[in-house]
Amino acid sequence: MSRNILVIGAGKSTAHLLDYFFDKSEEEQLYITIADLNPDNLPEHIRNHKNCNPVKLDITDVNARNICIEKADIVVSMLPARMHLIVAQDCLTFNKNLITASYVSNDLLKLDEEVKKKGLVFMNEIGLDPGIDHMSAMEVIDRIRAKGGKILLFESFTGGLVAPENDNNLWNYKFTWNPRNVVLAGQGGAAKFIQEGTYKYIPYHKLFRRTEFLDIAGYGKFEGYANRDSLKYREAYGLTNALTLYRGTMRRVGFSKAWNMFVQLGMTDDSYQIENTNGMSYREFVNLFLPYSPTDSVELKLRHYLKIDQDDIMWEKLEELDLFSPSKKITIENATPAQCLQTILENSWTLGSNEKDMIVMYHKFGYELNGVKKQIDANMVVLGENKSHTAMSKTVGLPVAIATLQILNKKITKPGVQIPITKEVYEPILNELKKYDIIFNEFEVPYLGYNPDSVAS
């Protein structure tokens, strides 16, 4: 008898997820119900698969949602994070295990006691970042501790970028994920972390000027800027005594300095609406943020404002986006500055149908063992196949799919609202991911962390 996996939401990250389920459907007796607002947009090979049932679902339709969840043996929510809670509450009602790739919200955590009472597994943060970052980090941390080592330093960086062969713009960047998240990155409070025993805080307007440089053999140099809250996982990872704890986002060198121009202009602000944006030219949009002058051009005012010369690469990056075009238009009514900027960037930074993306992840583990300080650096690079089967969908979707099968087959059984940081969870998933070339390369390097004889900076 087939077991029904309900996948709610069929967006960009589900291509590899669904392929995995269909590849296993005969062997594991799986039947996949895909519930989406627009199921007709699914590729034909998925819609017509004999073990697939695409259904139209408006997630706000309580009755339709309940019918789908009640019929399922397990539920995978690939909806936007804010929508997981109503699915989770239904899963509690109908005693269904739940998997999401999103960060655990405080509201979801409040269900933990009831989830445990019912013996259910609500697995979250099981995508790329969060997800593979947790599992790969805990695998090394647990290994070091098993030898008697003490973790002194942990840094982790992840980036969704464009593959080298399609890296053909001055920004060395194209959208591989939700563009809105890129435009709003770093907002909502100061970035906070611990560095060499000292708490550090970076306000948003300074975030993109404080970067760390990383090198991956065969792929060149990258930079990382701090995530908003690096301290969130101190207790979960057991790193309350670590001297350095830093989580960041990776970009190609030079991106952050250029992005900072938009921050300083105010173009990434999402807190207010601009009147009459529909039909506004890119040039008019830029001029909104510049002082009035009866004589100076928009270009001249911008160069003065940002203190950049006409032969500066920063200027070339702005020109490449057609920012000063009087003919290209914004087509959103009463948009925020961030929404206008997103429209402009999507015009230049969208992957072509045969272009490939790239995921990079980099961890640093500093530790002390038998009185000697050591360091392991580990990195992972995954390349996409094309615009639909991206490295992003692979690294987000495959861990979700593997975890779903592990829970369905009762290999992962610990109940509760949780993230993948225990060996029972991460070991089989990381082993399965290796079959799909999602692999970390580890290197022993000189320890570069905190020296107790020096003054903390």
Query: The CATH topology of the largest domain, please?
Result: Dihydrodipicolinate Reductase, domain 2
Oligomer: single chain
Number of beta strands: 16
Strand order of the largest sheet: 3-2-1-4-5-6-15
User: Helix share of residues?
Assistant: 25-40%
How many helices? The count is: 16
CATH class category label of the largest domain: Alpha Beta
Write the layout of secondary structure elements.
Layout: E1 3-8, H1 15-28, E2 30-36, H2 44-47, E3 52-56, H3 62-71, E4 74-77, H4 84-93, E5 97-100, H5 106-109, H6 112-117, E6 121-123, H7 132-146, E7 150-162, H8 179-183, E8 191-195, E9 198-202, E10 211-216, E11 220-226, H9 234-237, E12 244-252, H10 255-265, H11 282-287, H12 298-306, H13 313-320, H14 337-349, E13 357-369, E14 372-383, H15 391-408, E15 416-418, H16 423-434, E16 441-445
Parallel strand pairs: 1-2, 1-4, 2-3, 4-5, 5-6, 6-15, 7-12
Antiparallel strand pairs: 7-13, 8-9, 10-11, 11-12, 13-14, 14-16
Helix pairs in contact: 1-15, 7-16, 15-16
Task: Spell out the key features of this protein.
Dihydrodipicolinate Reductase, domain 2; 3 domains; Rossmann fold; 457 residues; alpha/beta
Description of the molecule:
The chain is α/β, with parallel strands linked by helices. The chain folds into three domains: 3-124, 3-Layer(aba) Sandwich (Rossmann fold); 132-255 and 354-388 and 439-445, Dihydrodipicolinate Reductase, domain 2; 269-349, no CATH class. The protein has 16 helices and 16 strands. The strands form three sheets. The chain has a seven-stranded parallel sheet, sandwiched between helices. A seven-stranded mixed sheet has the order 10-11-12-7-13-14-16, covered by helices on one side. Strands 8-9 form a two-stranded antiparallel ribbon. α7 crosses α16 and α15 packs across α16 (423-434). The protein starts with a strand and ends in a 12-residue tail after the last strand. The model is unreliable at 451-457 (pLDDT under 50).
